[in-house]
Amino acid sequence: MAAHLSLIFLSLSALLVCCSTGAIAGRSVEEQLQQLNENYMEMKELLAAKNRRLEALEALEVEVMEQKSLVAALQQSGTQVAAANRQVTSAVPRSCADLKCKGETISGLYSIMGAKSVEMVYCDFSKATYEAGFQKWLGYVDVKSVPTYFYVQKNNTYTTLSGPIPFELEVVNIGGAMNSASGIFTAPRPGTYFFAFTGEIRFTGPIPSVVAAVVGLQLNGIKVGSSHATDSNTSTSTYSQLALQSILNLKAGDQVSVTIDFLNNAIVYDNPYQHFNHFTGMLLEENLAGLI
């Protein structure tokens, strides 16, 4: 553009000189000097205008370079922000504010991750995050990564002390955590579990005599509960029921079993037709803190 302006300026200057020469040919010396002076001033003004245009052009070029640099910086910043947003939005939401950051705009029920379990909340996205009612807690969501529940029975009489009671009949064993042959349940996931045992004791002592039995619930080989039955044996067919329930917080790998801790002229009685002894357990609530 500068070269183009220079060419125009030279053409105008040549034209001006030609016109001026023809115009002053028949004038006096004073008139000729006056005309030449006017021509000089006109050329000077044209040159000044040309310089101003060149300076404006240079300033424009500098501004264009600055704009290019700014655009490049904004593009780089936008890439970094997008990457940060992807990292944030890929995380598990823990509040309605997190959901809003992920782009949710429709008010309604949402599942979020609490301290140990999945929770249900109502998010009102028409409100600001700091306003009352933006998030309303409703309750817990029953999420289990490994559904776990079992029900086993005995088929025969048992009299062995201390060790876990084995069970011959596996009615239900969802998750496979209960080893009925060994009588040991192994927790697959941390959480809160429920266990229950009911059994039948047959007293076999001489008549008359005092008979007794104790059944215990063990966690990793340590007794956490017991059930006791005692009676005065007055016939050859005296029976008593034992019952034991417990709710335990377990870690993954913890083991639970039922044991016979004491027998005095008594046996844990059963047969293949009636099934008097039952052991059940289930995962009530899983601790999901370490899963996500």
UniProtKB/TrEMBL annotation:
Secretion signal: which residues?
1-25
Q: Which SMART domains match?
A: C1Q
Keywords of this entry: Coiled coil, Secreted, Signal
Q: Which SUPFAM superfamilies match?
A: TNF-like
InterPro entries per record: C1q_dom (IPR001073), Cerebellin_Synaptic_Org (IPR050822), Fibrinogen_a/b/g_C_1 (IPR014716), Tumour_necrosis_fac-like_dom (IPR008983)
Claim: RNA-binding is one of the keywords in the record: no
Where does it reside? Secreted
Question: Single GO cellular component annotation?
Answer: extracellular space
Q: Give the main location.
A: secreted
| Record-annotated C1q domain positions | 143-290
Q: Coiled-coil annotation: which residues?
A: 26-77
Output this protein's name.
C1q and tumor necrosis factor-related protein 2
